[in-house]
Specification:
With 325 residues, the chain is of the alpha/beta class. The chain contains 11 helices and 16 strands. It has helices at 2-13, 56-64, 132-137, 139-152, 169-180, 194-199, 213-216, 229-235, 254-263, 276-287, 304-312, and strands at 15-21, 31-36, 44-54, 73-74, 78-86, 98-102, 115-119, 123-125, 160-163, 184-189, 204-207, 220-225, 239-247, 266-269, 295-300, 319-323.
Length: 325
């Protein structure tokens, strides 16, 4: 009995390193902190984090709070690692399993740490051929692209799709998912990234800096909006009747909805959700060789501020990843 109590007490009081912030602002607000190591709740697993991806939503939450409000908090939704412990009722995983997943967005943040707890069904087994760095880069962008194109737009073979920012985190994965679905894919990207986007399988690439995508495309079935702003509204004009625009920025959307109704097209906005079935579908594409996540750079956890500074430039091709182990 005393040995068991000692074990529980030790686990409960053990600390870990994480990257936290006490105020909103520039990357410099991030710093290393010591926090209690999590324990698994009912239906949860604790994962020893090996790698955790960075996404634009991390940079926006750091600077503006968004859904999380005021700090203190630990950011991070992407995670790849090894199951450390499991909670009551978990039957899918056991300690030692390699997993990847996305913590429930937005309130499940916290993967930029040595350990993280999350629902067991937010995770899937890590494919053996995928490194932890690659796996840590995949979940949020993979689920976002899958849910937007497959669940919402119901993209079908032969359909024409325009993907804005096709070299970015979500964009470069979306191009590959769309091609795997048999679609004709048009992407927008700066000229320097055209070769990269074509290498992903895009049929056409438009330089958004020198060309007007609305003048060069049309009769499209689907537009994936990753940018918002004026381009979102103008993207409605290139859809065929009944076509759909899926926006990843569900703010200031009333004007878009009204304009879509005038044109006889559809428009919807979404936020990514943790989704085990979607995550399995994405990793199946990886295993079959139809999808690869591009890692632009890696940073140790202690250099999270430097990684955020690079992300803030808005010029990252693919993903940035924090390495923890």
């Amino acid at each position: 009995m005393s040995d068991d109590n000692t074990t529980v007490t030790t686990t409960a009081t053990a600390s870990m390193k994480a990257i936290g912030q006490d105020t909103l602002g520039a990357p410099e607000v991030l710093h290393e902190i010591d926090v209690p190591r999590p324990k698994p709740g009912i239906g949860q697993i604790v994962v020893a984090v090996h790698a955790a991806g960075l996404n634009p939503t991390d940079y926006k939450h750091r600077a503006f709070g968004l859904f999380l409000g005021e700090p203190p908090f630990v950011l991070g939704w992407d995670v790849s690692g090894v199951v450390e412990s499991v909670g009551l009722g978990v039957s899918l995983f056991e300690p030692g399993d390699e997993v990847l997943g996305m913590l429930p967005y937005p309130y499940g943040a916290g993967s930029h740490a040595e350990y993280v707890a999350g629902p067991a069904r937010a995770f899937v087994p890590k494919p053996a051929g995928l490194s932890h760095v690659e796996a840590g880069a995949l979940p949020l962008v993979g689920l976002t692209a899958w849910q937007a194109l497959v669940d919402v737009a119901q993209l079908a073979p032969g359909q024409r799709v325009l993907i804005h920012a096709a070299a970015g985190g979500v964009g470069h994965v979306a191009v590959q998912i769309a091609k795997a679905r048999g679609a004709y894919v048009i992407g927008t990207a700066s000229a320097a990234k055209h070769e990269f986007v074509r290498g992903l399988g895009a049929d056409e690439v438009i330089d958004y800096r020198t060309a007007d995508f609305a003048a060069e495309t049309g009769d499209l079935d689907v537009v994936l909006d990753t940018l918002g702003g004026a381009d979102r509204l103008r993207s409605l004009d290139v859809l065929k009747p009944g076509g759909i625009l899926v926006s990843l920025l569900p703010v200031d959307f009333d004007e878009v909805t009204a304009r879509a109704a005038e044109l006889g097209v559809r428009a919807t906005a979404m936020l990514v959700e943790h989704d085990q079935a979607g995550m399995r579908a994405v990793t199946d594409l990886v295993t079959s060789g139809k999808l690869a996540v591009h890692v632009a750079d890696t940073y140790p956890l202690t250099e999270a501020a430097k990684a955020h500074a690079e992300g803030d430039t808005g010029r990252v091709t693919g993903k940035l990843v924090l390495t923890v182990r």
